[in-house]
Amino acid sequence: MSGIKITWQVSERYNGVLLREYLRTEQELSKKALAEIKFSGGALYVNGKEATVRKLLVTGDQITVIFPPEQRSETMVATRIPLDIIYEDDHFLLINKQANLTTIPSREQPHYSLANGVLQYYNNIGVTSTFHAVNRLDKDTSGLVMIAKHRYAHDLLSRQRKKQMLSRRYLAVVHGQVRDEIGTINDPIGRKDNSIIEREVRSDGQPAITHYSVIRRLQVATVVRVKLETGRTHQIRVHFSSIGHPLCGDDLYGGGREQIRRQALHSHQLTFYHPFQEETLTFTAPLPADLEALLSEA
Length: 298
Known about the structure:
Layout: E1 5-9, H1 19-26, H2 31-39, E2 43-46, E3 49-50, E4 62-66, E5 85-88, E6 92-97, H3 114-125, E7 132-133, E8 142-148, H4 151-162, E9 167-175, E10 182-186, E11 189-191, E12 199-201, E13 209-217, E14 221-228, H5 235-242, E15 265-274, E16 279-284, H6 289-297
Parallel strand pairs: 8-15
Antiparallel strand pairs: 1-4, 2-3, 2-4, 5-6, 6-8, 7-8, 9-14, 9-15, 10-13, 11-12, 13-14, 15-16
């Protein structure tokens, strides 16, 4: 099967410029991507004729890039898993991930993860790519996961994420009454000594910044909306535990499981700039049943 095909029209700005410069500067293709196109079965076309990166461009030229089919790891097994697809086009797949599902395979679940389910879905619709997660969620965190359908789309969204152009907002239910209506937790996070899983606030950790606002106060808990400025492992869970308000259900960081059997955390909104449609898009995912039940009981 052939790979992804993308077409652009050359603007006046790039009249007389080499195809290589156009692709590297305007379309942000990496040197690695160009090498893969050349040596791994891709192709470059200008006005329907195959060209090299040394081709001089003229205003109005039609550039077509065909990316080579991607090679999947033999350890990545396609598995039939129900997917709640919020949005899909030729470049991106946005999924509302259920709790109790890892984003990528783990030692405990090597064939049952979101990645395995997406690969089976790709097989069904004829997509040749491997799995490219733009963001990840913990196994028991539900909500929106952005997946790029090809490596180039993943590169573009990864750059957005590093520039904080890809915005994610979470809803969390934490124990107790959070004092401030709006606040920021700015404390470094690192791996806890003698643990490969648990994190903690520590002076020698990596910078971590979490912004939050209270949206509802329950009898013994607080519902908060959270925005991350950084993306450390377990960041929301660690930060709220560090200020005395662990997430409900999060027994790893001090939360009780009387009302919910997993951390009460849901990635409910994602905003990104679509580099191919050239517009900003925002999507939301409804609360899952266990979180709805938690809010209705309070």
